[in-house]
């Protein structure tokens, strides 16, 4: 609260000569950089900054700090003495701008008011001072318009409509063609709008104008658009904004004046050159508003060579000083250049990588700093194919952007058709209401997956990301009818099976017809199909290659892959995986083997059970031999069967209908009836918390021992072939050490039997997943029986929060994000305070028991950039993620190891 905050603050206002670029927390980005440019001796209009602390006091209490008015008055007096004129004086007025400036750039999200100090009395003095009556009245109408909208809450369209009417009356196209008399009339009209809409006159007291504008900027921190922007950019809500009061310089004084923006490098490509825009006879908002066409910055050389040469010199000074791409705002007032703002410029993902390596080559930064200039999110953008933005496309729906990329294909509505058509050379998009494990073959065959239900962590989304497959989920506008093999889009148009559609997994957009796709050279590089070269694409590849090499040299965390077959394992290895952190064996039991699993579950006798296990053993062994061969010399962590039993059994409703029909027709149905009875017997209200994981291995005799035997025999076979298999066996869903001890004893006996039978020494590490709160809380005990922990953060998040991952994103997560309860979904980025604290505590407790305990994570968070930093901080040994996220994890692991609190390139 304000009464606690105020006494600790020495001052609330800083002159531009007092600050520097490192005071962004206090002065905001704009104020800190204005101070820095002032310190560098660059031409900055004099002014002062009201700190973020003053804003926080105001937002906490609803009142400005008691000391603020006196401090502002003192700095205003000093500014007036320096400028030789007083704010709003009649004969020669000092005018100021009041501009927002938070720590992080929030372009257009908060408020600015220019030309403060103009009034009915001072407008004539400004006209005399400038020798330009039109300029003075133009400045006055701008003030009333901005002040009315920003400070008094008047609908901005009313001013725009009045301006358009004035141009129509005059018969002109642009506002620069309005004469002084026209603008004088417009001022009268604008003041009437203010009086009617705000219920008060436009204030004539210049100090009142300034004070009200300062409050308006404070208030804009909590405006709807600012809050929404902060949520999207994940900027903390408690930072507050600084306010910059700056003496006005005017770009609208005629053809020898103007305003512009400049970049020290191209923010789109990163290339060096002259980039920016300039607009003659204009103020800054004219450039942003786009009311007149700008000219390329290079043309300023012909318009005003002196100012151009000075600007080029200043740009070089700023880039060398900030050691980065700088974004600059400037104004030329009658041939004199003024710098209004600079900041580290935003850039595209490709530009970020190019610029980082260029600056290393120029000796401006080292490799450690270069890693802070790029992010895993930027790398992910570069890896996925994308639609050609210049193409015309008809968007028909929008869902959740679940897995990035661009996919085009014929719509199909079941997995069988997807596989069949794909084998015939057709590109298909699998369209479902929602997917389940039965759809795996179709998902693999498809170019992309589209569902009308589900969120970013639904089955479709998780599996698609694991495969690097484009996916759009939760497109609720679509009516998917799988039986009739069609979907209806908004407007009533029906997409039949075989019709071409396009989906954008980066935006969630769904299109009818084919949208051209642009491939990613970065993926081709990771796949080994592209090498650094000379053209633009290869230049980007070279930059990515170098940054990845930096990261790999710096990082401590190893990066493994979540991979369930040899093909994924080989891809992961090409992408830089240092082993497999999670092989989900349940995916091996689908398809042709499903019937064998069904028989195992339904077995009434030990003989039937043994027969099923005997049939499954060689199939499992073959899986593991292929996996060990693909990952030869690297660790492979195999999770024993985990999913609930219902995933291997027929749908209870469909089966009931089949039995009922057979009975009504008096047809034989003994097998279906037996199956239905078993399904009823095994039915669970909440199967994700039921008979699965280690519980399954304890209840179905021989299931886990069959899998362990397959692993051991596969390892022995690879060793006999001079291979180097490094298998690790992971027991899922353990909640107590006793469960792990029982399974471990059985596993150790099986491994010993295989060693004796093959004459091979096998070193198979046995560990567990920590995915239940109780396991995390008793990790010290569990470590007595485990050689490694792998944190299953997907299920740990579900059980800590009490969320059903497949349901909550679609039902209420949007509301939680909008209300600020979440900054981001806890299934996307680790919840450090809750789930993260359990991970940290379990890691520490486990290593107290077993100092050499290996620690990893294999949930979706393993490939999330922010989460990777957390796992580095808590001392894990590795993260494991889907193959296509491996480069992202490698890069972020390098960044985590070299994290510098001084770097910030939002």
From TrEMBL:
Sections of the chain in a coiled coil: none
The PEP-utilising enzyme C-terminal domain, residue ranges: 542-894
Pfam families attached to this UniProt entry: PEP-utilizers, PEP-utilizers_C, PPDK_N
InterPro entries: ATP_grasp_subdomain_1, PEP-util_enz_mobile_dom, PEP_util_AS, PEP_util_C, Phosphohistidine_dom_sf, PPDK_AMP/ATP-bd, Pyruvate_phosphate_dikinase, Pyrv/PenolPyrv_kinase-like_dom
GO-annotated molecular function: pyruvate, phosphate dikinase activity
Family: Belongs to the PEP-utilizing enzyme family.
PROSITE patterns linked: PEP_ENZYMES_PHOS_SITE
E.C. number(s) listed in UniProt: 2.7.9.1
Cofactor entry: Mg(2+)
Catalytic activity: pyruvate + phosphate + ATP = phosphoenolpyruvate + AMP + diphosphate + H(+)
Positions of the PEP-utilising enzyme mobile domain: 426-508
Listed name of the protein: Pyruvate, phosphate dikinase
Claim: Protein biosynthesis is one of the keywords in the record: no
Keywords: ATP-binding, Kinase, Magnesium, Metal-binding, Nucleotide-binding, Pyruvate, Transferase
Domain of life: Bacteria
Domain Pyruvate phosphate dikinase AMP/ATP-binding stretches: 66-293, 300-350
The UniProt record lists the keyword Disulfide bond: no
Organism listed in the record: Streptomyces galbus
């Amino acid at each position: 609260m304000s009464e606690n905050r105020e006494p600790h603050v020495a001052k609330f206002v800083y002159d531009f000569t007092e600050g520097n670029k490192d005071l962004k927390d206090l002065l905001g980005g704009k104020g800190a950089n204005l101070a820095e440019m002032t310190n560098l001796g660059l031409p900055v209009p004099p002014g002062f900054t009201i700190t973020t602390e003053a804003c926080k006091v105001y937002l906490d209490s609803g009142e400005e700090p008691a000391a603020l008015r006196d401090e502002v008055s003192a700095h205003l007096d000093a500014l007036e003495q320096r400028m030789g004129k007083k704010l709003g004086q009649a004969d020669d007025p000092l005018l100021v701008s009041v501009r927002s400036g938070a720590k992080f750039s929030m372009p257009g999200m908060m408020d600015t008011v220019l030309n403060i100090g103009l009034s009915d009395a001072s407008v004539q003095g400004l006209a005399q001072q400038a020798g330009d009556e039109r300029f003075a009245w133009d400045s006055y109408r701008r003030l009333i318009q901005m002040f009315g909208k920003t400070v008094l809450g008047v609908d901005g369209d009313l001013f725009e409509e009045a301006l358009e009417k004035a141009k129509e009356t005059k018969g002109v196209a642009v506002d620069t063609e309005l004469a002084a008399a026209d603008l004088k009339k417009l001022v009268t009209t604008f003041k009437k709008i203010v009086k009617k809409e705000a219920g008060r006159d436009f204030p004539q007291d210049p100090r009142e104008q300034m004070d009200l504008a300062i409050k308006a900027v404070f208030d804009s921190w909590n405006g709807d658009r600012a809050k929404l922007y902060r949520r999207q950019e994940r900027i903390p809500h408690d930072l507050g904004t600084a306010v910059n009061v700056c003496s006005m310089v005017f770009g609208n004084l005629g053809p020898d004046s103007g305003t512009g923006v400049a970049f020290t490098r191209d923010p789109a490509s990163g290339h060096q050159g002259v980039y920016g825009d300039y607009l003659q006879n204009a103020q800054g908002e004219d450039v942003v508003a786009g009311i007149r066409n700008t000219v390329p910055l290079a043309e300023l050389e012909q318009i005003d060579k002196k100012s151009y040469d000075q600007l080029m010199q200043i740009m070089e000074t700023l880039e060398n000083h900030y050691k980065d791409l700088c974004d600059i705002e400037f104004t030329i007032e009658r041939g004199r250049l003024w710098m209004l703002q600079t900041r580290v410029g935003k850039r595209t993902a490709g530009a970020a990588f190019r610029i980082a390596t260029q600056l290393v080559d120029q000796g401006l930064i080292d490799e450690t700093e270069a890693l802070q200039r790029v992010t895993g999110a930027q790398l992910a953008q570069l890896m996925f194919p994308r639609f050609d933005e210049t193409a015309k496309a008809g968007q028909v729906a929008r869902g959740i952007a679940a897995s990035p990329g661009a996919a085009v294909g014929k719509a199909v509505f079941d997995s069988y058709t997807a596989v069949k058509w794909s084998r015939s050379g057709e590109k298909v998009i699998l369209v479902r209401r929602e997917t389940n494990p039965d759809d795996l073959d179709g998902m693999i065959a498809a170019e992309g997956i589209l569902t009308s239900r589900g969120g970013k962590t639904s089955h479709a989304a998780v599996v698609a990301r694991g495969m690097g497959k484009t996916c759009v989920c939760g497109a609720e506008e679509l009516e998917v009818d799988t039986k009739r093999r069609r979907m209806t889009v908004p407007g009533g148009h029906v997409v039949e099976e075989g019709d071409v559609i396009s989906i954008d997994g980066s935006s969630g957009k769904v299109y009818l017809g084919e949208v051209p796709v642009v491939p990613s050279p970065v993926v081709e590089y990771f796949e080994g199909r592209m090498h650094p070269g000379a053209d633009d694409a290869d230049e980007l590849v070279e930059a990515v290659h170098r940054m990845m090499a930096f990261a790999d040299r710096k990082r401590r965390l190893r990066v493994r892959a979540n991979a369930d077959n040899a093909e994924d394992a080989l891809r992961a290895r090409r992408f830089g995986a240092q082993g497999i952190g999670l092989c989900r064996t349940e995916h091996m039991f689908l398809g042709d083997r499903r019937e064998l699993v069904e028989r195992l579950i339904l077995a009434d006798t030990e003989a039937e059970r043994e027969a099923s296990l005997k049939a499954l053993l060689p199939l499992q062994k073959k899986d593991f031999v292929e996996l060990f061969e693909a990952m030869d010399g690297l660790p492979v962590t195999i999770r024993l069967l985990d999913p609930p039993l219902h995933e291997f059994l027929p749908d209870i409703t469909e089966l009931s209908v089949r039995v009922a029909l057979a009975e009504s027709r008096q047809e034989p149905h003994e097998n279906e009836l037996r199956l239905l009875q078993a399904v009823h017997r095994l039915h669970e209200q909440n199967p994700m918390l039921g008979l699965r994981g280690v519980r399954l291995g304890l209840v179905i005799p021989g299931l886990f021992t069959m899998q362990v035997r397959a692993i051991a025999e596969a390892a022995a076979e690879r060793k006999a072939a001079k291979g180097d298999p490094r298998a690790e066996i992971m027991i899922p869903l353990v909640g107590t050490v006793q469960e792990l001890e029982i399974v471990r004893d059985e596993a150790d006996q099986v491994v010993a039997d295989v060693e004796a039978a093959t004459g091979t020494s096998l070193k198979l590490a046995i560990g567990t997943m920590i995915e239940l709160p109780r396991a995390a809380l008793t990790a010290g005990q569990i470590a007595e029986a485990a050689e490694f922990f792998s944190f299953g953060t997907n299920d740990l998040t579900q059980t800590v929060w009490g969320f059903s991952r497949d349901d909550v994103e679609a039902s209420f997560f949007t509301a939680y994000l909008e209300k600020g309860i979440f900054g981001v979904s806890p299934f996307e980025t680790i919840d450090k305070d809750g789930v993260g604290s359990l991970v940290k505590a379990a890691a520490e407790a486990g290593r107290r028991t077993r100092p050499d305990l290996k620690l990893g994570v294999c949930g979706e968070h393993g490939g999330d950039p922010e989460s990777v930093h957390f796992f580095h901080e808590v001392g894990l040994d590795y993260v494991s993620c889907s193959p296509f996220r491996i480069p992202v994890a490698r890069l972020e692991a390098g960044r985590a190891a070299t994290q510098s609190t001084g770097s910030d390139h939002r």
